[in-house]
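Why should sequence recovery work at all? Because a backbone constrains its sequence more than one might expect. Tight turns favour small or flexible residues, buried strands favour hydrophobic ones, and helices have their own preferences. The token representation captures these environments compactly. In the example below, the structure is given first.
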């Protein structure tokens, strides 16, 4: 498995080294609700708590799904509660980024309605269709061409995430066909594995279009001539996290191209393979439900909920440590000789 996820550290020019040092010191990190997935499903935390976590740890904002929190989710909030959340985010100086798990008109309309009430700045989506890959691409292009109609004043950045079925070049094909300057790509550290694509290959294909990121770590699982992944604590998996962060931070010459990095710790989340080595030229993707982590047994719940909160803090500390390692690596190219990677 290590050969699948192998990594080669690049040589940096002095300009790239200075860029990496500067950007790693001000990386725009966002709290992600999925890091508290089990706590949200158990009604142990609310959206206010996620905002508080982001404020307490000096993050830029939050990324949250319309359905995080079950009956207490944004989808079910009335206007008064949405106004309270909007006011709290403003008080804390935080951005809100919304996420939905579809590209159809109804879901995007709901996201836009809630987003306007919250003064959100970004909406993430991904196709969740059953069909041939070519059909999914065509349906998604059709869906996303409605964005100008749904958001005529350009309040939102829209991002299309690679979410376990489509590969990087297929997503780029969608974005280019839609032709909306407000639409970009969201790069997830692990989701390309399920489409049998390597992380660095996906990043190379998607690179010019990436504006947002989900940071996480995972173990690669080989099944039935395909790859699945099981998410784990950051630093305990097989993903080349530091190298991916380096490449993402370097995107954009004058200004950083990536504007938001979500801390999406997903310990024990499992996703099966959807693409295979022996698949036909236009493979069929089966229907799948929205992403969820399996709930622990009742006797283990309290421990798991506490551990999840600790893991979220641990991921932040791990990413901060990676930023320090990247700075040390970059500094080596400003003071010869360069001898090793971090």
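From this structural description, the recovered sequence reads:
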């Amino acid at each position: 498995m290590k050969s699948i996820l192998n990594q080669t550290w690049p040589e940096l020019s002095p300009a790239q080294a200075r860029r990496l040092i500067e950007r790693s010191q001000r990386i725009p990190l966002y709290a992600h609700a999925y890091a508290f997935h089990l706590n949200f499903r158990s009604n142990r935390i609310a959206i206010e708590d996620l905002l508080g976590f982001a404020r307490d740890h000096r993050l830029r904002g939050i990324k949250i799904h319309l359905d995080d929190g079950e009956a207490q989710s944004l989808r079910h909030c009335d206007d008064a509660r949405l106004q309270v959340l909007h006011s709290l985010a403003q008080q804390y100086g935080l951005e809100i980024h919304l996420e939905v798990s579809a590209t159809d008109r109804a879901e995007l309309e709901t996201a836009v309605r809630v987003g306007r009430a919250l003064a959100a700045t970004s909406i993430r989506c991904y196709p969740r269709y059953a069909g041939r890959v070519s059909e999914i691409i065509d349906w998604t292009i059709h869906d996303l061409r409605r964005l100008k109609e749904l958001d005529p004043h350009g309040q939102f950045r829209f991002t299309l995430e690679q979410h376990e079925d489509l590969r990087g070049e297929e997503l780029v094909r969608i974005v280019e066909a839609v032709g909306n300057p407000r639409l970009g790509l969201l790069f997830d550290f692990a989701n390309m594995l399920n489409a049998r694509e390597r992380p660095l290959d996906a990043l190379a294909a998607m690179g010019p279009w990436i504006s947002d990121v989900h940071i996480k770590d995972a173990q690669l699982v080989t099944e039935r001539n395909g790859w699945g992944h099981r998410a784990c604590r950051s630093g305990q998996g097989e993903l080349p996290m530091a190298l991916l962060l380096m490449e993402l931070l370097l995107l954009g010459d004058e200004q950083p191209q990536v504007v938001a990095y979500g801390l999406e710790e997903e310990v024990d989340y499992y996703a099966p393979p959807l693409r295979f080595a022996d698949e036909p030229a236009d493979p069929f993707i089966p229907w799948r439900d929205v992403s969820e982590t399996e709930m622990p047994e009742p006797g283990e719940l309290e421990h798991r909920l506490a551990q999840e909160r600790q893991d979220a803090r641990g991921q932040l500390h791990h990413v901060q440590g990676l930023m320090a390692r990247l700075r040390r690596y970059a500094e080596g190219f400003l003071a010869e000789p360069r001898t090793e990677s971090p």
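A few observations help interpret the result. The chain has one domain: 27-331.
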